[in-house]
């Protein structure tokens, strides 16, 4: 469906694909002239890759201090307020610099500079402004509910005992123990996580409105042109066969195993909402390279659907719905991008599935004490904040339910994210029509809200450095050294990413699985690698 619009039109560039294509073309120079230039590019590629591979041993293993340089903490390492402001791991990362490429990545090259500015503005507003205001002003539940946590709490701030609220009936369906729930009360969350929900709602709605206003006429024109060209009946039949047989097959597996605690009929709703989001989300991604998450909206829909007698309220059912509906768009994005480059990459994605699963199982087995919070991690890497987010959403949307959640004055403001997401792109569109030379069309409200929604509770060390490096690459070099940028930017980005990934794989295979632990020293402090010793009160 979306392929007809995005793949054949050169305006939809898929920025990440440009980096991949540049690398592939350098590896396969055709003419003598191209071979000469390609050899030089590949020589630089391998040198940068080697340098990155060697360098990454410092932030990742030997000298993690350089992974998050917190100058504010250097001058007041025992001052809690200063530590909270300066720490990139557990604080807001004010002026925090990272020398770890994993916190930067080649998005400093692949993202257009306007996208990078929008992302950084969203980060500054939510992390450098709103968090200190809420934290030091005791706003929106702070400090009762940890603003740097995306966990779930009781009203008094203690951990939420969600397991005690679930019981299973004779047919295997999970229900909420209403008596126990009334004793425990509502499931609260920290201010940062709560306004994150607001921002994700705004981002979801904004994607539809923004694409309709700015790209609607173009999409309609492309669609009409494609219809005029005509399609063979065989091609159309093949498409619909894939669209029906594969989902039905997956559905049979889900029904047969009965292991996801999700009502069967909600599976079709998940596919429907996932398909509806595919076009606007793909349009944003094709033009910017920025991927929008749709999980929070899907969780809201699921919460309302199962809020009825007889429905399973197990939090894992909500997670299954989120994955199914979200992956309709996420997988479509991956396949579309691969078709923009070369179809054989789909095979690589298939190989990546078992490898990623194996690594994930290793992380759970070897780092569970860090992830669960039983043992504090001085490096602040194994926080498990993504898993906590899934757990919190499952408790709030499936177990408690959105009706109870948004009946509370604490969560009710979150719903204003929907009108905010609808109004923001209209204002930008009107400004663009009034002042076309000001390029308001570059200020994508969908990306802004999504950036503002990104949870930086435990890791805020990357955005500032990313913006500085992105300004150098995609503003200074792109504007004032265009020939140099054209020749070396994408090659450099690919080499840096490859070198980092090679180093990570090496550390995982030869150090991680063998249990070799780096000794503690000044640059690998046992308490806090940033030397922000008063971060925790």
TrEMBL record:
<dbReference type="GO" id="GO:0015031">
    <property type="term" value="P:protein transport"/>
</dbReference>
<feature type="transmembrane region" description="Helical">
    <location>
        <begin position="82"/>
        <end position="101"/>
    </location>
</feature>
<keyword id="KW-1133">Transmembrane helix</keyword>
<dbReference type="GO" id="GO:0016020">
    <property type="term" value="C:membrane"/>
</dbReference>
<feature type="transmembrane region" description="Helical">
    <location>
        <begin position="413"/>
        <end position="432"/>
    </location>
</feature>
<keyword id="KW-0571">Peptide transport</keyword>
<feature type="transmembrane region" description="Helical">
    <location>
        <begin position="488"/>
        <end position="511"/>
    </location>
</feature>
<dbReference type="GO" id="GO:0035673">
    <property type="term" value="F:oligopeptide transmembrane transporter activity"/>
</dbReference>
<dbReference type="InterPro" id="IPR004648">
    <property type="entry name" value="Oligpept_transpt"/>
</dbReference>
<dbReference type="Pfam" id="PF03169">
    <property type="entry name" value="OPT"/>
</dbReference>
<keyword id="KW-0813">Transport</keyword>
<feature type="transmembrane region" description="Helical">
    <location>
        <begin position="198"/>
        <end position="220"/>
    </location>
</feature>
<feature type="transmembrane region" description="Helical">
    <location>
        <begin position="452"/>
        <end position="476"/>
    </location>
</feature>
<protein>
    <submittedName>
        <fullName>Oligopeptide transporter 2</fullName>
    </submittedName>
</protein>
<keyword id="KW-0653">Protein transport</keyword>
<feature type="transmembrane region" description="Helical">
    <location>
        <begin position="44"/>
        <end position="70"/>
    </location>
</feature>
<keyword id="KW-0812">Transmembrane</keyword>
<feature type="transmembrane region" description="Helical">
    <location>
        <begin position="113"/>
        <end position="136"/>
    </location>
</feature>
<comment type="similarity">
    <text>Belongs to the oligopeptide OPT transporter family.</text>
</comment>
<dbReference type="InterPro" id="IPR004813">
    <property type="entry name" value="OPT"/>
</dbReference>
<keyword id="KW-0472">Membrane</keyword>
<feature type="transmembrane region" description="Helical">
    <location>
        <begin position="267"/>
        <end position="287"/>
    </location>
</feature>
<feature type="transmembrane region" description="Helical">
    <location>
        <begin position="240"/>
        <end position="261"/>
    </location>
</feature>
């Amino acid at each position: 469906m979306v392929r007809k619009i995005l793949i054949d039109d050169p305006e939809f560039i898929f920025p990440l694909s440009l980096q991949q294509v540049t690398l592939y073309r350098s590896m396969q120079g055709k003419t003598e002239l191209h071979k000469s230039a390609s050899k030089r590019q590949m020589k630089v590629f391998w040198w940068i890759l080697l340098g990155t591979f060697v360098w990454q041993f410092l932030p990742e293993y030997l000298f993690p201090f350089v992974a998050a340089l917190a100058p504010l903490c250097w001058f007041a390492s025992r001052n809690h307020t200063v530590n909270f402001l300066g720490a990139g791991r557990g604080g807001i990362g004010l002026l925090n610099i990272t020398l770890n490429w994993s916190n930067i990545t080649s998005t400093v090259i692949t993202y257009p500079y306007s996208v990078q500015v929008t992302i950084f503005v969203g980060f500054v507003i939510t992390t450098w402004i709103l968090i200190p205001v809420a934290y030091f002003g005791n706003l929106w539940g702070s400090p009762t509910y940890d603003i740097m946590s995306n966990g779930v709490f009781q009203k008094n701030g203690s951990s939420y005992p969600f397991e005690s609220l679930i019981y299973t009936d004779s047919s295997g369906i999970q229900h909420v123990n209403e008596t126990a729930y009334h004793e425990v009360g509502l499931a609260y969350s920290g201010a940062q996580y709560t306004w994150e929900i607001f921002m994700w709602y705004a981002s979801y709605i904004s994607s539809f409105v923004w694409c309709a206003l700015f790209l609607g006429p173009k999409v309609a024109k492309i669609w009409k042109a494609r219809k005029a060209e005509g399609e063979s009946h065989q091609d159309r039949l093949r498409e619909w066969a894939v669209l029906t047989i594969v989902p039905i097959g997956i559905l049979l597996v889900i029904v047969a195993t009965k292991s996801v605690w999700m009502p069967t009929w909600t599976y079709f709703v998940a596919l429907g909402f996932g398909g509806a989001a595919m076009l606007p989300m793909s349009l944003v991604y094709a033009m910017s390279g920025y991927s929008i998450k749709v999980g929070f909206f899907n969780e809201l829909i699921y919460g309302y659907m199962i809020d009825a007698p007889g429905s399973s309220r197990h939090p894992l059912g909500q997670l299954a719905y989120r994955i199914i509906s979200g992956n309709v768009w996420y997988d479509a994005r991956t396949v579309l991008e691969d078709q923009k480059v070369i179809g054989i990459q789909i095979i690589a994605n298939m190989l990546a599935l078992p490898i990623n699963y194996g690594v994930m199982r290793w992380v759970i087995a070897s780092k569970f004490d860090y992830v669960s919070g039983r043992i504090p991690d001085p490096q602040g890497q194994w926080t498990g904040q993504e898993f906590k987010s899934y757990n919190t959403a499952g408790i709030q949307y499936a177990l408690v339910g959105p009706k109870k959640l948004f009946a509370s004055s604490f969560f009710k403001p979150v719903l204003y994210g929907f009108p905010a997401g609808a109004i923001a792109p209209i204002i930008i569109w009107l400004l663009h029509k009034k002042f076309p030379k000001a390029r308001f069309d570059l200020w994508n409200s969908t990306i802004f809200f999504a950036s503002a929604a990104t949870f930086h509770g435990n890791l805020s060390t990357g955005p500032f450095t990313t913006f500085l490096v992105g300004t150098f690459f995609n503003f200074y070099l792109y504007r004032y050294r265009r020939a140099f940028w054209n020749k070396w930017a994408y090659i450099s980005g690919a080499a840096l990413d490859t070198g980092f990934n090679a180093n990570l794989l090496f550390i995982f295979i030869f150090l991680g699985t063998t249990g070799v632990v780096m000794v503690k020293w000044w640059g690998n402090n046992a308490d806090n690698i940033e030397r922000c010793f008063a971060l925790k009160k």
